[in-house]
Amino acid sequence: MLEFRRWLCYNIDRIMAKEVENMSRQDNIITNIKPSTAIRHDYNSFSKLCHETQAPVVVTKNGEADLVVMSCEAYQRMIARQRLGRMLSEVDREIAADTPMRDFEDTFAAIKKRIDNA
Question: Do the beta carbons of residue 58 and residue 68 sit within 8 Å?
Answer without folding.
Answer: yes
